[in-house]
Amino acid sequence: MPLTLEELKDVQANAMADDIDIVFDKMTMWSKEEAMAYFESGGTTEPEEVPYVIVGHSMGTWMSYEWIKLCAERGIPLPAMWIVSGFPAPDIPEAERPWNKNEKMDEATFQEECRGWNVNEIIFEEPNWKQYSGMMRDDFTLFDSYSFTPPPAHVGPSFAIPMQARVLSKDCRCKKHHLELWKRFTTASFELEEMPGNHLFFYDVPARDEWMKSILKKLPTPFFPEACID
């Protein structure tokens, strides 16, 4: 359910979101209820015959959890693999989250908070900061205000989904012990690897390539023939 260019412009032109459910709605252009109605009406092509994986980095890991939880609640087939990177598990106690809430920060303090996420210094120059600071405030508010709810009772505290986790060697905030917290969300296999790069590794082409190859090599059959990876 990708956005077209015009839809993306429309999302950017409207008020920014500070709630994960709102982000779900904007990124899919559907509400959760509309998405579920589509699935339940047979709008997909035999989902049990179309295996898929879920990949989330940073706050995207918590959005991936919410999506998987929603699928479990509605009896929709779960992914063949779940890949999380650069963020603690969603049930981490608020006092242990490796960041500070931005709500009461002045601009200088907020910029320092951004630096803790390896944000490039060029962002803090004008006119860049004027352009992006509001969006970044809303982005940070998403995980500042997130409230965890456990999986449905009929699923149990965990999901039977093999998991891969990635920690970045130069990530200033999210460390190995934060990624290890995800282990309790699966009753299947769990593997954690350290990769080069910082929290925003995807701007570093060699680090991004190594991260991606590490994921492709772990995908279950028949997603990627090994010959296609290198």
From TrEMBL:
Coiled-coil intervals, chain numbering: none
Protein's name in the database: Thioesterase domain-containing protein
Domain Thioesterase: 37-204
Species of provenance: Chrysochromulina tobinii
Any single GO BP term: lipid biosynthetic process
Family: Belongs to the thioesterase family.
Domain of life: Eukaryota
Pfam families in alphabetical order: Thioesterase
